[in-house]
Every structure is written in structure tokens, then in C-alpha cells.
Amino acid sequence: MEKGFSPVGLRVLVVDDDPTWLKILEKMLKKCSYEGSLLLFLCFYTLGVHLLNFLCFCFNPLAVTTCGLAREALRLLRERKDGFDIVISDVNMPDMDGFKLLEHVGLELDLPVIMMSVDGETSRVMKGVQHGACDYLLKPIRMKELKIIWQHVLRKKLQEVRDIEGCCYDVGADWFTQAQFLGGGEDVSFGKKRKDFDFEKKLFQDESDQSSSSKKARVVWSYELHQKFVNAVNQIGCDHKAGPKKILDLMNIPWLTRENVASHLQKYRLYLSRLEKGKEIKCYSGGVKNMDSPPKDAEINSGHQSPGKSSSYAFLKATETDPKQLAPASVSDPTSGVHMPPKAKKTRIGYDPPNSSGVFDSLLPWNDVPDPLESKPPILYENSFLQQQPLPSQSSYVANSAPSLMQEEMKPSYVNEDEFLMPQDKNSTVILQDMDLSAPFSSNATSNTDSIPGSLNWELPEAHHSGSLDTDLDFTWLHGEHFFANSGLQNFQFQDYTSSTSLLSEPPPHLWYGNDRLPDPDEYTLMVDQGLFIS
Amino acid sequence: MDAHVAQLQMQYRNYILSLYQQGFLDDQFTELKSLQDDGSPDFVAEVLSLFFDDCVKLVGNMARALDQTGTVDFCQVGANVHQLKGSSSSVGAKRVKGLCINFKELCEAKNYEGCVRCLQQVDIEYKTLKAKLQDMFNLEKQIVQAGGIVPQVDIN
Known about the structure:
The complex is a heterodimer of chains A (about 525) and B (about 160).
Chain A: E1 11-15, H1 19-46, H2 49-59, E2 63-67, H3 70-79, E3 86-90, H4 98-109, E4 113-117, H5 122-130, E5 135-138, H6 143-147, H7 149-165, H8 171-184, H9 189-195, H10 199-205, H11 207-211, H12 223-236, H13 244-251, H14 258-283, H15 293-302, H16 308-326, H17 340-347, H18 363-368, H19 370-375, H20 378-388, H21 390-409, H22 421-436, H23 439-448, H24 463-466, H25 487-499, H26 501-505, H27 509-516, H28 521-530
Helix pairs in contact in A: 1-2, 3-4, 4-14, 5-15, 8-17, 12-13, 13-14, 14-21, 14-22, 15-16, 16-21, 16-22, 17-21, 20-21, 20-23, 21-22
Chain B: H1 2-21, H2 27-35, H3 43-66, H4 74-91, H5 94-108, H6 112-145
Helix pairs in contact in B: 1-6, 3-4, 3-6, 4-5, 5-6
GO molecular function (chain A): DNA binding; DNA-binding transcription factor activity
Keywords (chain A): Activator, Cytokinin signaling pathway, DNA-binding, Nucleus, Phosphoprotein, Transcription, Transcription regulation, Two-component regulatory system
InterPro entries (chain A): ARR-like, CheY-like_superfamily, Homeodomain-like_sf, Myb_dom_plants, Response_reg_B-typ_pln, SANT/Myb, Sig_transdc_resp-reg_receiver
């Protein structure tokens, strides 16, 4: 449907305790908008109305609000619920940690947040990535870095549209690209396209997206609403059983849609997983070492200063991977299948943990398998795998969860794996959680799976599958079996695995399909050979 | 009259260049100047006054923190250093920023004497810069009063 000219300016909230920077940023942003308006006029004559529509949105004189305190910023954001498009915040603030603010904004308001700091230390940048920042700018900030912030807003809008429209949009292309990615190890086509921000192409090819409102009414998750949400989730109990539909029903809010709940659920899980990370890391000794990739990753992200555009992208990539990996087990919610395809595509990235976390390698194939994922409920995969290899099931589980998380704020990951090694580690830990999720898993496995023998022959304690992904995830559900932590057990499991040749011969097509697509088959083999699966 | 203006402009140009050459200012200052326009003719002066006010406050905080008779809270000092680093990066105060980097390391090492000395250096440095920039503004005023326009100085 033809969109009218809807000039909505980009509304930026800048939060920084340094008055000098506030003044400078305000001036810089205003300057960006003047220059942007000129671009707008030029576009009008050369490009289609669709692109123009988006540009209008982004480039019109922008409204800048500055704020010296984090709490003040939150208050402003909550008061004017739909009043801002993007938040730029300093990391260090006297009253509240910038990362905390970032989390609040992400959870409650789903706005893109850009972090900035004079400190470009790797760990800080990674922290920003983990907390879901769209970008991390190093001070002093240059004009060119500010000029591209509209891209974050636009990307988010596109994602929202996609969320609303469900899986229809561009699934084919996504799968194809993901396949390429798997095969090539590095996303080429789709990633590049996004990387080059080829908006024109994107906009013109996604007519369906554009037909829907480019600016949907954003659901603002107020504290009360969020509390209702949390209550509903807790009521349902095991997180993995908490599907958006159930939560929606429990919340009983007429105007809320399943999509709203689904996306909020993803964010919530990410948030929880982050909280739990500290606890998990201690428990998990299943061989996932902290890779030395973080520095590499950091290097990539730290160099934000000059190449504004590329730095944003680098950061975006990292961000993309990160949520995916931190995705708490989302679920084996077949009803959320609508989210599957896009998610699956996204999860591909960064799912290449180092050998030590080789167990997770198998996750990759699952994430990448488009069609099966789409058609079968996640739980099916889990079941089949569970019975054959604990690892694959785990991965399938993760695949399910990761995609959903990916959906949330992720942009297609088109970064090469190296960058995500660090997040991958996190991913590993998160996966552990996911595994836990499978409480009903073991029992359901049999019932859900038609093709796979329903017996869990593994000496593997079923406990690991019976853990429920409670939000206060602690590993006690492991029932002392420490199934992730016990590498000895892994070997043990492996033997079981190899002995069940029948099971081996049975893996569902998608499993093998996935295996073929493993970017690093060696790793996978290694994993299997060494029994590096999480029992 | 024109000769006078031209002379002032030359003086101004040389002065600015020397500030860069001596490391008092860096690229960010150039950016700051580029933000100034007809809509905000005193932008640079306003930002600089905010910066120097901030310096006074932060140096004061650090002096107090280091003056503790008991154990010195190096975290507190470090936090202030971090803020000063951010501030100085905003106006292109190169020397001050450089000092902050050293200062931060000293805080992390909990080197009391080092910190005290560094703080003194920071104090001297920002005050020196303030004086130099004040001279620069005076030159600008003179040029305008003489009927000329303040030249754009190309650093490169």
C-alpha cells in the first residue's frame, strides 16, 4: 500500500553525566539532521516513495533531548512512551550503571540503545554487546558516527514489521543465505547486502513488509505490564513450557498480541540468562573455556572511532551473535513456529564454538536447517536427538531458543565466526540452560517422536533433560549429576552412543542435513569421536 | 585598518597553529570549531566554559579524595579521572587527556605519591590551557573589533 509522506523526525535521547558532551552531542545531532534533510530532497526525485518514506522518518529535523542522569532518562522514556526512537547513553553514570539503563530500556521499551564511553576497553565493549547495545561509540565521537544512527532505528523497525508479519517475509532468501553461510563458513550474499545497507534493494524486494505500517504502535512494557508478564511466566512454571500463547492467555490483556508477548519473552530470557551467567559459569565445567577470541572480538569492536559505519556494523554483528547465544532456552513452543525460520537463519552465526565446547557444534546444523525447523516442532528434534545423542538434542534445543532470541533484536549475522567466539562461549553456557529445559523433554520425547525409538537408553541421567528452565536457573536440577560439568560422563555417554548403532542410522534427515552443513565438520567429528556431547 | 586586521589575523592563525603544535589541542578542537555556526556563534566558548567548570569540580573532588587521612579511595579518584578524561576528550584538551591516562594507571596501582603528583600536573595543565584559550578568544575579539572576521585556521 502506498505510504504517504510521513515526516516523522528521529527522536533521540542522549544520556550523559558530562555536561560538555551533552552540549556537543546535541549540537552534532542537530547538525546531522540539517544535512539529512537536504539528502531527503535529493532522494525524492531519484528514488521510490518507499525509500523516501523511510528516509523521511529518519532524516527529518530530529528532536534531541538531553539528560544528565540515568534515572531521569528512564523517567522521561516511561513518561513519553512512544516519544523516542533511539537512546544514546554513556556507560559511566553516577546514579546508575549505563548497562543497567541499557537493559531497562531494552526490556521495557524495545528501543535501540547506543553506548558510548571514553574507555574502549575490550571488556567494556563486550559488556555492551552482551547487554544488547546496538553500538558502542568511543569518545570523542565523530559526526560520521552519529550520522548513521538512524540505521539502527530503521533496522529495528524492519524487524518489528517482520515480527508482526510472522514468518512469511523473506524466509526463502533467509534459508538460502543461511545455507550459504553454513557451507561457506561466512555469510556472503545476505550478510553483505545488509552490510552494505542496500536499503533500496531491501525495501523494494520486501513489498509485503512495506505494506504494513512502517511505524507500528510500539507496545511499551510498563512496570505493571511486565510484572503481569513475569507472574504469568512463573505461573506456567518451567520456562520452556511458557510459550507466548500461554503467557498471553494468562495475562489476559485484550489488546496485547501474541507477537508482543513473544518478543518480550525473548528479551526477558536474554535478561535472565545474563543474570544467571555468573552462576552458571561456576557450575559449568563442561569444557567450555573462555576463548581468547574476546580480545579479537574486542579489537574489532573497539575500533569504532574512525570508521563509523564499519564499526557500527562490527558491533551489530557482535550483537547479533550475542543474543543468539545467550538465548535462554526458548522453547519448544511449536506455536512460536512463526518465529522459527527467521530465527534459525540468524542463529547460524557464531555457532562455532571452539573445540572445547564442541558439544555445541551440533547445534549449528539445527539452527541452519530451515525447512525441518519450520515444519516440525522443536521438541521433535530434541526428542530424536535426545535418544541418539544428547548433544544433538541439546543443539536442537538451542536452535529453537536461539532463533527466537535472534528474532528479537538481531540483525542477520553476517559476520565471520571469529568475532563471536566470545559470545559463543556464553552461548555454551546458555545452552546448558537450554538443556535443562528439557524437563518434560525426556518424557515427551517419546510421545512426540514417531520415528525415533522412544527409549532413552543413555546411561545418561535423564535428569539433565528434566531440568526446567526456571528463571532462577541454578544447576541443582542437575541432581548432582553435573551433566555438563562431568566430562568423564561425556565419555561414558559416548560409548553408549556408539553402541546404539540403530539409533545412529535413524537420525531424521534434517539431522544429517544439518551435519552436512556444519561449517566445520572436523569439529563436529571431533566432538562425536571424543564424546563431547553433553550427556 | 586593513593592515592592522590582517596582522591580527596572522597573529591569530599562528597562535592557533602553535597550540596544536605544542600539543595543547587536537582534532576534536577542530571538530568543535566546525560545529560553531551562525546559529550558535559562541558555541566553542560555551563548551569550553562548561569544560573548565568541570575541571575545577573534578580536580577538587580528587584533591579531597587524596587528602583523606585514612585510606584513600582510589576507586573514587579513578572515577573522577575517568570523567575528566571524557571531558577533556570532548574539547580536544590533548595534554589534559594524556595526563588522565597516566593518572588512571596510577590509581589502579594505588600509587599515592604518583597520584598526588599527577593531580598537581593536571591542575597546572588545565589552568595553562585555560589561559591560552583565553588569549585566543581575546585575539578573536580584537579582530572583530578591528572590523575583520576571524579566519578559519586549517591545521593540516
